[in-house]
Amino acid sequence: MVDQLPNLGREKEMLEAMGMSSMDDLFADIPEAVRMNGELPLRGPQSEEEIIADARRILGANVALGDRVNFLGAGLNRNYVPASVFQLITRGEFLTSYTPYQPEVSQGMLQAMWEFQTLISELVSLKVANLSVYDGSTAAAEALTCAVRVHNRKATQKDTIYISELLPPARISVIENYTQGGGVVIKTLRHNSDGTLNLESLSEAAGSCGIYVEQPNPLGILDGGLTRVKEIIGDGTAFIVGVSPVSLGLIEAPGNYGADIVVGEGQALGSPITYGGPLYGIFACTNAYLRQMPGRIVGRSIDVDGQEAFCLTLSTREQHIRRHRATSNICTNETLIALMGAMHMSLLGPEGLQKLAQRNMAACELAKKKLSEIPTIAIPHVMNCHYNEFVVELPGAASDCIAYLDTQGLIGGYDLSNWYPERRNWLLVSFSDQTKAAEIELLTAHLAVWSASVSPGVSA
């Protein structure tokens, strides 16, 4: 029987086991200047009513995106999600389900998961899709490590991957976190001055384990040159494309122009933006990557009675339990949010998805036309096609412009100096099916006033 030592005795015992004599020794590596030695400044006990009143006061300081005119995107999109999605997903058989290791009691949930995979597979035009991963950035990182596992033995540039130089720092950070332990070398692919991929730089990537680019890219540009990528890099290098899934209602599916792995942020399908999430990452691939694909896969089979049945397949229990044997860092997934995406896609259907993509692109194109008429600003990549968002070059700092627009009740966009420090005058403005023509007119009017105010000799 374990000795029932007093708390102080247990504390002393543990400290001695670590070769320490006091709790101060345990935290000796923390600089004294950042230590807090006094009591925590906590208020006294409160009643339930007082706590609720305080919570309402604090929450009241938040501003919902739907309550203000909003042009902030940078990877997340405020598309309309039908109310029925939220009603269905709160049903107990979805909301309270977890890992369906016992298929005999999980057929409904497993079928719903399988339907999600099928919808994603059809959307990106690849034969295999998994049951989602954490988000778009981890999907990209997992795709690159998957490519290394598949191609490293035959690659002439072993342990080497290439990524677009336009990727946001947060996405690059996730990729670096996933690859650093394996000694993977990350190199960048150059882009032209118009924002499109420099196809000549692709020749450097031939023979590597894989390349990662996005369509549309982080500046909202739809790059027609990506249809030539596979013929340049060859079959020995994985061609990985990050997509905005709603855009595939209009533009060509990556599987049709040679993509080996397609990943992306699924949030625009099914999930609202609530303080940055919740998110889920899509992941689909060709058969060559199936055995090294991360996450869970649901398969449709036949049971002993000859009836259709669904079960987890191909990935082993080690994927989820014995982590040292796993081929992936994905231990769980985002099934509940992914099923919201499946419900959204099912409710839309092919024609509905096409219409949603058209509404997104129409808002973006209308805004580009209107903003191009302001003489004091420029659209750096105006000759390209865009989806959801594009860059505006301002006569002053984007941060100042955003602050001004905020005083006028607008969430003005994203300051791209956060991604590219030398681009302090670049503002990324985003649009969706929820953007109204009147809101674009309002943005145009306020940008004209602000830009004229910082451009000497120019009137609004």
Main attributes of the structure:
460 residues, alpha/beta, Aspartate Aminotransferase, domain 1, Aspartate Aminotransferase, domain 2, 2 domains, seven-stranded mixed β-sheet, three-stranded antiparallel β-sheet, 16 strands, globular
Task: Give a description of the structure.
The protein has 460 residues and is an alpha/beta fold. It has two domains: 66-78 and 358-453, Aspartate Aminotransferase, domain 1, CATH 3.90.1150.10; 83-344, Aspartate Aminotransferase, domain 2. It has helices at residues 7-17, 23-26, 48-59, 83-89, 92-95, 107-124, 136-151, 169-179, 199-205, 229-233, 335-372, 398-407, 437-453, and strands at residues 69-70, 128-129, 160-164, 185-189, 210-215, 221-222, 238-243, 261-265, 281-285, 298-302, 308-312, 385-386, 389-393, 410-411, 414-415, 426-430. Strands 2-9-8-7-5-3-4 form a seven-stranded mixed sheet, sandwiched between helices. β3, α8 and β4 form a beta-alpha-beta unit. α4 (83-89) packs antiparallel against α11 (335-372), α6 packs parallel to α11 (335-372) and α7 crosses α8 (169-179). The longest helix is centred in the last third of the chain and has 38 residues, at 335-372. The radius of gyration is 26 Å and the shape is globular. The mean pLDDT is 91.
Would you spell out the secondary-structure blueprint of this structure?
Blueprint: H1 7-17, H2 23-26, H3 48-59, E1 69-70, H4 83-89, H5 92-95, H6 107-124, E2 128-129, H7 136-151, E3 160-164, H8 169-179, E4 185-189, H9 199-205, E5 210-215, E6 221-222, H10 229-233, E7 238-243, E8 261-265, E9 281-285, E10 298-302, E11 308-312, H11 335-372, E12 385-386, E13 389-393, H12 398-407, E14 410-411, E15 414-415, E16 426-430, H13 437-453
Parallel strand pairs: 1-14, 3-4, 3-5, 5-7, 7-8
Antiparallel strand pairs: 2-9, 6-12, 8-9, 10-11, 13-16, 15-16
Helix pairs in contact: 4-11, 6-11, 7-8, 11-13
